[in-house]
User: Fold these one by one.
Assistant:
Number 1:
Amino acid sequence: MTIPKQLRGGSVPNHIAIIMDGNGRWAQKRGLMRAMGHKIGVESVQSIVKACRQFGIKVLTIYAFSSENWQRPASEIKTLMTLLKTYLQRELNNLNKNNIRLLSIGQRQKLPADILQILEDTIAETADNSAMILNIALSYGSRNEIIRAVQKITAKCLAGSLQPGQISEQVINDHLDTAGLPDPDLIIRTGGESRLSNFLLWQASYAEIYITETPWPDFRRDNLIAAIANYQKRQRRFGKTGEQAIVQPANKPLNEK
Ligand code: FPP
């Protein structure tokens, strides 16, 4: 683990989640096809995964394809799927070498069969890695995730294995795609828009949100350091007063033991 000197004064977030926006605008500004923005965006993914691993981040969730992205032109969907396929094929060795486990959230069964197969193989082949989790949101929408969780919980209630009165925050956490993962501490959105875009709505309850104008293809290690340094200046109160929050360590999520 190598923590850059700018970040040595505070703790790094456990879980960073990123809305990788601005690929299309980055390309269009340069007179390039939108596909080029996504292609260079993959280089940003590689750079940020490497940096997170070095900084000791435990979970990195990246929003690679939303449930709404299926409405984009077929050619753009094809580009994104091809980039994802190539990324997974190329990165397997690197993930294993760096002890990084791959997970995904979202309705992955909606992905083309060849990509689903590679994704599931990569998840299986990295399952024993323990230094960091790279969690890719694919065909992911938070409302859809919540609907599916409610359906699973309701089925248990109807079957009698769960009573409605037993439904707690923990029960809901356990039925989301992110079951077992800590909530994000820091959500970064590149490309300047101030929206969550149906990303981790339940899990984002106490996340610190950092929005940067920098488009995703330009977002690299130094930009990540700036985002974490900004996070370290925040006081996380989790609904308490400032004085109480100082007594309770700032970066400790409510559900952390
Ligand atoms: C948003 O930019 C970005 C996406 C919809 C896709 C993000 C995908 C990648 C970075 C590459 C594939 C990922 C992996 C993990 C290999 P936008 O196109 O909406 O940008 P705009 O707002 O400027 O149009």
Note: Residues 248-257 have pLDDT under 50 and may be disordered.
Number 2:
Amino acid sequence: MEHRTARKLAQVERSATMALADRARSLQQSGRQIINLAGGDPHFGTPEHVLDAAQNALAEGFTHYTSSRGLPELRKAVADRLSRRSGVIRDPEHEVVITPSAKHAVFASLMAVLDPGDEVLIPTPSWVSYGQMVRLAGAQPVPVPLFAADNFTLSRELLEAKLTPRIKAIVLNSPTNPTGRVLNASELRDIAEFSAAHDLVIISDEIYEDIVFEVNSHRSPAEYSECADRTLTVSGFSKSYAMTGWRLGYVSGPRELMDAVLKVQEHSVGEAGSFIQRGGVAALLGDHSPVQHMVEQYDRHRKWAHGALSQVPGIECALPEGAFYLFPDISALGFSDSHACAQWLIDEAGVVVTPGSAFGPGGEGHIRLSLAPSTATVEAGVNRLCDVLSMPR
Ligand code: PMP
Ligand code: GLU
């Protein structure tokens, strides 16, 4: 009976963000007054025109299988958006696949490129699922720790230092969850040259592409001539359009890689939900003022929360450039580690945050606060944090 589950799963941890979301829900259900700043889920409703499109699709009986690649009009909208924004040309027929969530798009991309024994570079702090997904594919994550003192800047030297002959791919995420960094031109140039020199596949998770606080600051590695043929670009609807529960995302890339992604999709989930995809078409082609409105609110949250936390003696906090998280350094506050700090904050302040250690070796010494809840929740949560962390312990 010892080996009834796959050995590779022995190395895989539960999603720290999802486990914490469950914890916050159960604390709330048990009657505790909890302020949840853990999850990356926008408090906004999904825009009306998106709801209407999905409701109309349901009313029309649009409730059957679609092409496994996704609705042609949605693939075209994705390809048009890519070419408009970054000049990257992908054929909607063969080079775009609509997926049930960006999470599945990352997973299918990794399954499409990795063999057992391969290794994957992951600059950290990084989103909790990349390393676990690499392990699910039978490969090994190789973290590339970045340093808070350098504002988590990525460089060719840091990448070269972790290179082994087994490295097959690199996972990038900009704007970055949890640090809020947006990769700049010099970092992207380094990545492009490094990936070309070592013939690596780039999996570029750009799910926060719309949430940047300086116009046009988000750039994609696929824009670089060395990278166009080696990059799988992932994005989705959860963050930009407040559609986390819809489970809708997409991946685009060169045909050879996309044919492999399609095989994974066809033999796992099949495709994304039909009426859900109609909502996606409305999101991409419809009025974008709701996105603008949300980004403006995240901008106010980040400035206010950054200002408030920076007043707490011992806390260092960079102002995020994108995404909707704050990632303060709490290492001078005397906790044994970030997990202990997060636990103490639940007990003492009733505020749930994510310990930085969940984001890999580069994340220890930090906590992550989500700025996606409502203004009232963010203000109440951050005020409580500031109060308890300013008190002598
Ligand atoms: N990538 C990053 C960096 C994220 O923060 C998230 C949020 N869950 C995802 C991918 C997945 O998004 P979803 O599955 O909701 O499309
Ligand atoms: N991306 C969000 C987060 O980091 C949602 C949870 C998840 O999918 O990991 O909190």
Note: The chain has a mean pLDDT of 96.
